[in-house]
Amino acid sequence: MSKIDKLTPEQEALIPVYRDKWIAIGKSCEPCDLEQSKHFARLAYAAAGLECPEKFYLVDSPMAAAKLEVNLRGENPNATNLQTAINNQVFGYHEAGWLSYYEFMLEVVGIKECEKLEGLIGLAKNCGWWSPYDDCVIFQHRHSELHTDDNFRLHNESGPAVRYRDGYSVWAIDGIRVNEKIVMRPETLTVQEINAESNQDVRSIMINRFGWARYLQESKAECIDYRDNEVEGTKEALYKSPLGGMRLVVTCPTGRIFALGLEDGVKTCAEAQVWLGGGRKFNVIGRT
Question: How far apart are CA 189 and CA 245, in angstroms?
Fold first, then answer.
């Protein structure tokens, strides 16, 4: 087995090159190269000691691949079978995080054992997700649209974070998967829908999109304290939301309204200002 104790300065200098290369691969919106994908699928099967089937399909999205698989198996296309089919898919170009390491080790460091991954590496460069079976291989085009934030988390507040060629989409804000309504029609959300959401991250996004001031008003949140802040020129009200969190609602002279999260120990608007200013002398019990 190949062994290496330390990278040379020249090898280390290539790390960011491979990093940027594979980030681009993972974010690529290029269509699948079917012939190249077939070639690398055969290499992947061979490396696993398996015979690659010669029946290939190409579809537009993970959902399309799931529907095709369920249809080929003669199964009921219900939600459970479709989810199982999606779970069985190989992530291809979205496995760039670990495949980049092994390509670097193969091409730069010369670790020959990594040659067994050439099939998977090649597939990641040429197609989207894929499904390897005994009797067929299902390839997918890459997504046609991708939106992320500065931390590479899926994020789009005005449309799908991921869109595929057949229209199948994934909606996400701050890396948290949400539904289309939360992104495109947040004004139509209801307090009942928000309070019924069990995922705390999703619920927080729902309230932010709905508007904290509106949520506190429509949920009949309890007003704990109120004051005219003559120094800042603001009107302030301290609320306890029905979900248990504390919020300071601040109305600026311009008419803009902010709802700022606080710890549960805050009891007055003055204490809230101290806490928000960094003088956090209260025990954090919890926040919505």
Answer: 20
What residues does each domain of the chain span?
A: 9-142, 193-276
CA distance to 22, 94, 142, 162, per residue, from 115 (Å): 18, 20, 25, 32
Q: Which of 144, 142, 169 has the alpha carbon at shortest distance from 32?
A: 142
pTM, two decimals, is 0.80
- Tell me: the pLDDT tens digits for 120-155? 999 999 999 999 999 999 999 999 999 999 999 999
- What is the rounded distance in angstroms from the CA atom of residue 95 to the CA atom of residue 285? 39
Taking only the tens place, the pLDDT of each residue in 177-232 is 999 999 999 999 999 999 899 998 999 899 889 988 888 889 888 898 999 988 88
- Compute and round to an integer the Cα radius of gyration of the chain: 26
74 pLDDT higher than 50: yes
Question: 3-class DSSP state for residue 136?
Answer: coil
**DSSP readout, 184-200?**
H-GGG--HHHHHH---H
- How is residue 154 annotated by DSSP? B
Distance CA 239, CA 28 (A): 46
In the chain, count H helices and then E strands. 12, 11
Which amino acid type is present at position 82? L
Residue whose tokens read 């995080």: 97
Residue 158 DSSP code: S
